[in-house]
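#onboarding

Welcome to the new folks! Below is a worked example of what a typical request in this channel looks like: someone posts a single protein sequence, and someone else replies with the predicted structure as tokens. Don't worry about understanding the tokens yet, we'll cover that in week two.

Example request:
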Amino acid sequence: MELETGTDRMLARVEDGVGWMIFNQPAKRNAMSLDMQEAIPRILGAFGEDDAVRVIVVTGAGERAFVAGADISEFGERRTASEAREYYDQVAAEAGRAWAATEKPIIAMIRGFCVGGGVLVALQADIRIAAEGSRFGVPAAKLGLGYGYGGVEKLAQLVGPAWTAEILYSARLLDHEEALRIGLVNRVVPVEELEASVAELAGAIAANAPLTVKAVKAALRETQRDPAKRDLGHVAALAEACFRSEDYREGQAAFLAKRPPRFQGH
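Example response:
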């Protein structure tokens, strides 16, 4: 099922329990334009409201890039004058809030260049799977851009402050082996196996109990907050909801009957 995104530069569909969000500007290595940023909350909101969607996969169209940063051709118009920059920042903030509000697991399927804003998109995912030959980097220091705290924090939480410093200070590109070694990606697979590997993982997640996956994602998010601000009560309530669910009983029945469980999410 194809979804209306508001721009042909973003594609979205639902297929076998998986919501696919595709950055679709391959001629520019899927560089993010303003309308692409505006579409992110629409797509994620639609996936969030659709019970048929159990997991979300984010990727880029074509063979050259996941997302190769922001569309620099828009910088003169969109990111120079203070009023235009304010609106651009508002759109980016709304996209960030949409990522943060997404309760379903997200997989980033990365092929080719994952640069600048593309790294930020990949950091929103719970799991990152990359194809051999992928390249990663944040060139802000080569463009004179101010890099916000949120992006620095998310990168440091994933790879640590020392590697974050090297990535951002040097603005150099990392190859797939280096990205794997520092923990920027979960795994690297041959190009020809990328989509099948992601589809297999997404299918496995989609087949599991949605309430359990939701509770785990919520717990993982709390681990990244200041301990004084963690909402452990919310996490405990989600875990308790699992035990009270029909899916919990279905899981036990399926185990005893030696058959695959059929989880409904309630």
